[in-house]
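Lay summary. Proteins are chains of building blocks that fold into shapes, and those shapes determine what they do. In this project we predict the shape from the chain. Here is one chain we studied, written as its sequence of building blocks.
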Amino acid sequence: MIATPGRENFAERVRKGATGGRAGGALDALQSLFHRRVGDILLKVITGAIAGGALAAMLAILIFLLRDSWPSILYNGWHFVTTLTWNIGSLYSRTLSHHNGATAASGAAFGIVPFIVGTMLSSLIAVILAIPLAVALALLLVEYLPARIGDSLSFVVEMLAGVPSVVLGLWGIAVLIPWIGHDFGPFLSHWLGWIPFFKGPIGSGQGLLASGLILTVMITPIIAASTRDVLRQTPRETKDGALALGLTRWEVIRGVSLPWASSGIFGAVVLGLGRALGETMAVLMVSGSAANYLPQNIYSPIGTMAATIVSQLDSAMTDPTGMAVHALAEVALVLFLISVVVNVPARLLLSAAARRGGSEAQ
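And here is the predicted shape, written in a compact code that computers can read:
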């Protein structure tokens, strides 16, 4: 080991202190070691508590939802996720309905199939439209624009991702819905009407298409910003080498940048999908808040699980049996489980891709 002036390793300091070469050297060294170990222990405890806190929060949410939805689970059984009818019953009738030890208002029926279908279809439309837009925007920012302009536009994209959903909902009511009802809807019906799902009637513009488009506006900046960050991590020497071999810029993007960033893009899409599944206010304002039937075409009014919880909560609070509130808690539980089912396999695929990429790099 090469000695450095003014610096001595721990063993040398202990030796000098033990032999009297430096008064108190061993004690200083032991104190330094103690402080370092205390710092390491505190860091491990704090980071472990934070990680454990996130898991504890998830478990607490799950336990809360299970507790509040349990009477609804007993009362509805599997009919909750297999039937179409949602009706909190006659709140002013003296007759009550009893089933499996749970009590509900007379005529109460809770089926959320239309809400599940509305949630999944609107999110699917949003993801299908957002992926090409977001990837193209990210490629524009990283590959084609000068760095200064790209950084400025990146800031604008990040700002768009933070626009409150109620603001986008107001924009949807004032601009998007009339445009769909008068222009875009008739255009789609004229050119794609041979496909039953795109055939009219169009209606006012509120419905599945408006919900999918407004979700597209909301998740495109999220996917684009994450994709931009991943594309910037593509090794510059690999891209320069491909260009030196005579590949065009598009061939480099297709053969180098996009394959390198594929797992990150997939993760960004999952992040956007999670936002779309749980979006409430914007969808509530443009969806039409329909219940008890499945959408017949892309223009049909729909209801989603998150929007239903908000729209039905006031009336549910007036249910003297409390079953309507328990049913909304079960809606939240189903939405929570859908989010987990969507995100956990996606994260596993990302981890597998990262391990495979690491082994190939070695």
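What the prediction tells us: The longest strand covers residues 96-99.
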